[in-house]
Amino acid sequence: MVAAALLFGAVNAYAASPTLDKMKSSGAVTMGVRESSIPMSYTTGDSRFDGYHVEVCRMILADIKSNLGLSTLRINYQPVTSQNRVPLVQNGTVDIECGTTTNNANRAKDVGFANTLYVEEVRIAVKANSGINSISQLAGKKVATTTGTTSVQLLRKHEKANGVNFDEVFGKDHADSFLLLESGRADAFVMDGSILAGNIANSKNPKDFKIVGEVLATEPIAIMVPRNDPEFKAAVNAAIAKIVANGSMPKLWDKWFLKPIPPKNAVVGLELSPATKNAWANLNDRPAEDYAKK
Amino acid sequence: MAFDFGVFCKNTLDGEVVDHCFSAIFGLAQNADPSYLDWLMKAWAWTLAVAGLSLVIALILGVLMGTLRTIPPNSILNKSLVRLSTAWVELFRNIPILVQVFLWYHVIPAFVLPLKALPSYCLVSIALGFFTSARIAEQVRAGIQALPSGQASAAIALGFTTSQSYRFVILPMALRIVIPPLTSESMNLVKNSSVAFAVSVPELTLFAMQAQEETSRGVEIYLAVTLLYALTAFSVNRVMALIERRTRVPGFIVSNDASLAH
């Protein structure tokens, strides 16, 4: 209650926030969502969107709505892609992006990031019968990853640093990369753990694949907000603090990562990682570069 | 909007500025880490390799299939060759190029196992070459049919066999006529080679998508890639124009030069 009262005061004191002003005057807000980033943010058909980050964002917006004293706040869903998500937040088309965006220093020049609620770990997916258990066993093998992702650069760095030589093959999207692994064109698929788990859960025979090996990188995935609007960011972070404090986060994790989810009732099956737990315990908006230094 | 083309002199591992932009290719600097410019040049080489290989496949098969479509159906063998070439053209020009690339990469090797051993750029070149050959075949056919029918009759009157009349009379004239549409088709091939990124050939389009994600300098990257595509297609245009001038038969094709006209 005290926090809410403080926030309410803060919002009134800094009425210069363009996003909050827009929400107040129009009674609507535009949420950027992804179409197939299961289970973080995806469509469940009929232009409906759901997922871990989407649900968190709905909670955040509900909190802001009550703080602004609005009776209704309509949420417009705007599907975004890896290519257009940053420009759409920059030009104000999207007020809050709830997808799978890595918070890094380069992007922080263009947009703002809310406190991290999900820390992604880059892992290796292989066929269950391949006998591969670690990155050192990938020498001379074909490793698939998706064009336009940070995992490509990560693999390159790793190859350089450890002298493990492997052939890279690139899928044009995650489904293609997974097909490369499935059809034997690649021996391993290196990507964010949630994407690997989601693709395996949706495959013909989920038991044929497994996620193995060490964590290649940890990256904070965060909700994106406009950069020039610190008041809005503060309001979002205050809402996040409340959601974490009332114990919703473990329940949300359970719902989206460990239980059957729509539309196919598949189970992603990704256990809560210590890194994500730590992010909840110490709320922060540190970029990926800070995680790499650890 | 401020442009920062300095991104091309950064290395691809950690984004630090390198001493010489062409560090890796020409061995100018001691550091072996390639810059984005090195990578861009390598990607351009892949684009050229894919476009060049598919152009060879497309020209050979296109001229062959286009010729077969016009041969007189006066024997069972000739009839079946005409049918084969018609089927070829209709098959390969009715399926989108991206779908054909996926068919050659993922589907056909599942049935024809030796194809699995072929590198992806070969499979893409086959797909692009076959797709373009169907289009070239139609142009060659149109060129042959544009010739006055008297030419074929005259060749037969001289005692030439069918293959001799094609070799010495019809094709030399028909192929000259179709050089302008062949030019467009060859330029299209350069641009169509961008689909190769979809099956992990590290060419210009793949470079653009990956490098803009790593550097967040999408505008500069796409400008450079656009320039290279335009430059490549325009070079093809100039080479074809040269061939067109060199092979011209004075007085045959209506020319802008009035003195050459009949």
UniProtKB/TrEMBL annotation, chain A:
Keyword Nucleotide-binding on entry: no
One Pfam family here: SBP_bac_3
GO biological process, one term: amino acid transport
Listed GO CC annotations: extracellular region; outer membrane-bounded periplasmic space
Signal sequence interval, chain numbering: 1-15
Superkingdom of source: Bacteria
Residue ranges annotated for the Solute-binding protein family 3/N-terminal domain, each copy included: 28-260
InterPro entries cross-referenced by the UniProt entry: Bact_solute-bind_prot3, Solute-binding_3/MltF_N
Keywords: Signal, Transport
Family under the similarity heading: Belongs to the bacterial solute-binding protein 3 family.
Name recorded for this polypeptide: Amino acid ABC transporter substrate-binding protein
Taxonomic source organism: Polynucleobacter antarcticus
UniProtKB/TrEMBL annotation, chain B:
Domain (ABC transmembrane type-1) ranges: 44-240
InterPro entries: AA_ABC_transptr_permease_3TM (IPR010065), ArtM/GltK/GlnP/TcyL/YhdX-like (IPR043429), MetI-like (IPR000515), MetI-like_sf (IPR035906)
Localisation per UniProt entry: Cell inner membrane; Cell membrane
Classification via Pfam families: BPD_transp_1
Transmembrane segments annotated in the record for this chain: 43-71, 91-112, 118-137, 221-240
Gene Ontology MF, one: transmembrane transporter activity
Domain of life: Bacteria
Predominant place of localization: membrane
Keywords, in A-Z order: Cell membrane, Membrane, Transmembrane, Transmembrane helix, Transport
Membrane topology: Multi-pass membrane protein
GO process annotations (BP): amino acid transport
PROSITE patterns recorded: ABC_TM1 (PS50928)
Any GO CC annotation of this UniProt entry: ATP-binding cassette (ABC) transporter complex
Family of this protein: Belongs to the binding-protein-dependent transport system permease family. HisMQ subfamily.
PANTHER family: GLUTAMATE_ASPARTATE IMPORT PERMEASE PROTEIN GLTJ, MEMBRANE COMPONENT OF AMINO ACID ABC TRANSPORTER
Official protein name in the record: Glutamate ABC transporter permease
Organism: Polynucleobacter antarcticus
